[in-house]
Amino acid sequence: MSGRIHIDHFTTLDGVAQAPGAPDEDTDGGFAFGGWQAPLIDSTDGAQVDAGIKSMDALLLGRRTYDIFAAYWPHHLDGPDADIARKFDAIPKYVVSRGTPELSWRDSHLLGGDLRAEIWALRDRHREIHVIGSIDLSRTLVTENLFDQLNLWVYPIVVGAGKRLFPDDGPPASLELLAAESPSEKGAVLLRYRSKGSIPPTGDMGAENRGS
Fold it and tell me: Where does the Bacterial bifunctional deaminase-reductase C-terminal domain lie (predicted)?
């Protein structure tokens, strides 16, 4: 059985996935709410995130997210985040980029060719590959239907403008809900989806009454 591609995203109630972890994580567009997730994470969603990290055997990242991770996690192999840091350090990291970035973090590899072919090659090498953050890459994977499961943590906060996985001008998509996990103590809900294709079904809720 080929490996599976998981996309992991933390989003606000209005769909913003930009800079959940820290104020200076991503200030593009003058984003003023970096670190919005920090006050809202608790033991429930923390355990869900930990379980996903334990299950993965490879990371697939966009260039910006890779740079953020590489600047942080190799320096936290001891301390409160050591389990996560050591896991990320130990597994292969695959970076999608059109350029030639310096990939100094150990076991990091550039994917710069045909993305569809690269994804299928990863499926042959790994059991469970996770995309974390990497909004632009995640949009492409959804558009091209190159993922198996979307894990979406939705938090009870509205921030307005910011980067979204599903932007206003983005392509259509149809998804099937696989599971809605019990909400966390602070109101986060983990929704798990799989793709049903790029053309959402439509209908007419008044058709039956007009035909009678």
Answer: 7-180
Single-letter code of the amino acid located at 12:
T
Edge-to-edge strand list for the sheet holding 149-155: 108-111, 93-96, 58-62, 128-132, 4-12, 149-155, 189-195, 175-180
Which amino acid, one-letter code, is at 146? L
Range of the domain at 188: 4-24+31-199
pTM: 0.91
Number of domains comprising the chain: 1
For 182-209, write each residue's pLDDT tens digit: 999 999 999 999 988 777 788 888 777 6
CATH number for the domain including 58?
Answer: 3.40.430.10
- Render pLDDT for 142-183 as a digit per residue (tens, 0 to 9): 989 999 999 999 999 999 999 999 988 888 888 999 999 999
